[in-house]
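Figure 3 (text version): structure tokens given as input.
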């Protein structure tokens, strides 16, 4: 994307017409470190209400100080926080530039109106502008709304993480591949260890290898969706 579109990705939330649903008007904006005193308590409250992991203030600061531009908020007309997404972007084990969606929440009475989907789209768009290779996250295997949002946007289930959360629940890792060949980019330590000679001889296929092959097979499809992330569906999300 051009430099202009990069700037636009940050400024667009303030310029877009507000989402209208019934009598609710929302505006979407990036967090920005200077807004800590205003919004951080609300972000903590909204996220801690529903997520199973008890995050300390340091976890929020870790993400928001370094990647404030990858946190987006949905606010109502009185500046109440209705939805939020918190992310980061950095090289993954010396390999791909990996975006990571750490937290996502919408206030319960506002759910099902496309708010979280719009926040995810905004984060994806910003990460694409920042040259992300892939975007990853974990979500509980029975979190249907969350799985729907991400899979609608082209994320693939790449791993099942048994008893991943402190509450004992199992998670899926989902990844959106943004460029060709990314599942094969080497990492250290490797995400996908090479097959041992004995395994190769027996033609074994473990879960990781299967996931990688499936991801590679769907690469063209995912790449095709890259420009739809904000393009084709952005206008419809404004009207939900
Ligand atoms: C997950 C969450 C962020 C979704 O927020 P939202 O603003 O309601 O999300 P959206 O409206 O954009 O989309 C929700 C999708 O789930 C679907 N959905 C919602 N509830 C559902 C249910 N009970 N069963 C099946 N699908 C459901 C919606 O239809 C929609 O899919 P669609 O676009 O294909 O119609 C919200 O439920 C939440 O804050 N949950 C608690 C925190 C959480 O679980 N965060 C995610 C952890 S990674």
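Below: residues designed for each position.
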């Amino acid at each position: 994307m051009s430099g202009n579109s990069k700037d636009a990705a940050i400024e667009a939330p303030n310029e877009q017409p507000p989402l209208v649903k019934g009598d609710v008007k929302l505006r979407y904006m990036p967090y920005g470190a200077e807004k800590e005193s205003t919004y951080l308590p609300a972000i903590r409250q909204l996220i801690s209400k529903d997520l199973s992991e008890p995050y300390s203030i340091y976890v929020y600061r870790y993400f928001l100080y370094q990647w404030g531009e990858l946190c987006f908020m949905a606010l109502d007309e009185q500046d109440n926080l209705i939805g939020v997404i918190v992310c980061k972007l950095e090289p993954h084990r010396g390999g791909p530039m990996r975006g990571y969606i750490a937290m996502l929440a919408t206030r319960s009475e506002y759910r099902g109106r496309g708010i979280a989907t719009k926040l995810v789209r905004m984060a994806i768009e910003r990460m694409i502008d920042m040259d992300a290779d892939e975007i990853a996250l974990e979500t509980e295997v029975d979190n249907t709304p969350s799985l729907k949002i991400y899979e609608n946007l082209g994320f693939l289930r790449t791993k099942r993480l048994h008893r991943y959360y402190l509450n004992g629940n199992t998670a899926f890792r989902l990844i959106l591949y943004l460029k060709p060949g990314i599942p094969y980019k080497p990492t250290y330590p490797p995400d996908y260890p090479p097959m041992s000679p004995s395994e190769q001889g027996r033609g074994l296929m473990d879960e990781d290898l299967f996931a990688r092959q499936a991801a590679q097979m769907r690469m063209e499809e995912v790449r095709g969706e890259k420009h739809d992330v904000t393009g084709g569906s952005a206008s419809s999300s404004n009207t939900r």
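The first helix runs from residue 3 to 15.
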